[in-house]
Amino acid sequence: MERNTRPTADALLKRVSVVTVLGNVILTVFKLFAGVVGRSGAMVSDAVHSLSDVFTTLIAFLGVRLSQKPADKEHPYGHERFECVASLVLGLILLITGLGIGKVGLDNILAGSYADLTPPGPIALIAALLSIATKEAMFWYTRHYAKLLNSPAFMADAWHHRSDAFSSIGSLIGVGGAMLGWPVLDSLASVVICLFILKVAYDILKDALSKMLDTSRGEEYEAHLREYVLAQEDVLGVALLQSRTFGNRVYIDLVIQVDGELKLRDAHAIAERVHSCVERDFPDIKHIMIHVDPAEERDP
User: Fold this and answer.
1) How high is the pLDDT of residue 1?
2) Parallel, antiparallel or unpaired: strands 237-246 and 249-258
3) Contact 172, 123 (CB under 8 A)
4) Would you call 207 helix, strand, or coil by DSSP?
């Protein structure tokens, strides 16, 4: 008999967190060193962005762990919304980080303080290239595990890595331009980095707020579920189907129509069968509440 060697969700969670935190710490230290030694404000800004990745990964880890707590007396519907809270915190950190980086870049441009700066050294250029490759790899790595864990918080963290890769492209252009005799490009790169960060922050905050507000899963999702329910044996119609997101899970309110001449016990058995089938075939649905109406009382 073969033993099940597939890693648990908790093991996957720890694995992706440890890898991304260690990777970001090493990358932050190297980029900060390269920015200071290579005299590049853009690279120092990029290092600050990578440092924020360390905190966001830790917050995502904490959010996912808390969301996995089972329901209790005070929280009978579970704790899934902790992931939304974690995503909100991630988005706010990105927002503050982006505004801070943009302010420094704009201040340097408006003050003209870049004019007398010594051009960045080659190490800053090397750091930018290394950062682009590393952060893009971390994006795909984290995105892969976010899908396995069905985790919005880690998916947000993955896009944070992608924003860092884009910001490093801005650093590369800024450092390269400054080395070629356009020192303003180094400060301008900080502003470009700011814009990338703010865009990702907006997307993360929008998604988290949507999931906090019991937003519907959308017409396409509900139409697919309605078609599935109507295909179940003895279901004559669907009078109502509403969905709402709860963290990374879904709650469904459903009114099905059955033969009005059936005994209560038989009608209940149909509802139980539909309930079991839906929760089996739609794993993102945490619970479906089903009410039964007689078909002949269906609205015209």
Assistant:
1) 42
2) antiparallel
3) no
4) helix
How much of the chain exceeds pLDDT 90, in percent? 18
- Neighbouring CB atoms inside 10 A of 130's CB total 15
Whether this prediction's pTM lies above 0.70 is answered by no
What dihedral do alpha carbons 219, 224, 225, 229 form, nearest 10°? 130
Q: Is 244 left (phi over 0), alpha (psi -120 to 50) or beta?
A: beta
Three-state DSSP class for residue 216: coil
* Helix or strand holding residue 132 (H, E): helix 122-149
Q: How far apart are CA 237 and CA 224, in angstroms?
A: 14
CB neighbour class for 80 (10 Å; exposed up to 12, middle 13-18, buried from 19): buried
Distance in angstroms between the alpha carbons of the first and the last residue of the chain: 58
Three-class HEC string of 257-285:
EECCCCCHHHHHHHHHHHHHHHHHHCCCE
